[in-house]
Amino acid sequence: MGINIVAQNKKARHDYEILEKFEAGMVLVGAEVKALRAKRANLADSFCRFIQGELYLMNAHIAHLETTVKHYIPDTRTPRKLLLHKKELEKLYVKVHKDGYTIVPLMIYFNERNLVKVSIAIAKGKQLHDKRADMKAKTLDREAQQSIKNREY
Prior knowledge:
Layout: E1 4-8, H1 10-15, E2 16-26, H2 32-37, E3 41-42, E4 47-51, E5 54-58, E6 61-62, E7 80-83, H3 86-97, E8 102-110, E9 116-125, H4 128-150
Antiparallel strand pairs: 1-8, 2-7, 2-9, 3-6, 4-5, 5-7, 8-9
């Protein structure tokens, strides 16, 4: 069955070097799960931040569906609490505050048990020359794969 990907943060892999990944649950209110099933989410410009010792997903957009209750419309960019084990939270806290790394969300998805999960990662920002080197390596790999594919035997 696998996972059902709702939204991906494609810019994160371009702007950051991913060091370690984690899986976190997310606290949702109202009809946000319905909106996620309809793939009405966007992780562009989203990030994670510690607020009073708890990790929150900031600036992630989950749209309101027109088919749900009209009386209660939650804010689409409200901070959403992420659920992790205490040891994982402590590890992330140390990495962010002592080592200066960043926590970025990579994707929102439904796991095998049909629960909403967020894949987050400890990341280090890339410099411009690192981005150029990555793009050059990808181009070379792509050209090598095409030449192998188009080679006649």
